[in-house]
Design goal:
Helix content: over 70%
Number of helices: 2
Order of helices and strands: HH
Structural class: mainly alpha
Number of domains: 1
Largest sheet: none
Strand content: under 5%
Shape: extended
Distance between the termini: 38 Å
């Protein structure tokens, strides 16, 4: 049986989501193709939703 690879996150979920959003926003700004830009903006929206959910769950 294979062992599951586990590791501890060095940064918080909020920090990782913020970094991801920043990277995707930069990629969307530089995207030349309209469909690529729309796909990146959908990812950005999903990341913002994840950040909101994390904030709501962490506040109780």
């Amino acid at each position: 049986m294979q062992k599951r690879r586990r590791f501890k996150q060095t940064t918080s979920l909020q920090d990782r989501i913020a970094k991801f959003s920043e990277d995707v926003r930069k990629q969307a700004d530089n995207a030349a193709d309209k469909s690529t830009k729309e796909a990146l903006l959908k990812k950005l929206c999903a990341a913002d939703t994840a950040a909101d959910l994390d904030r709501q769950l962490s506040t109780g």
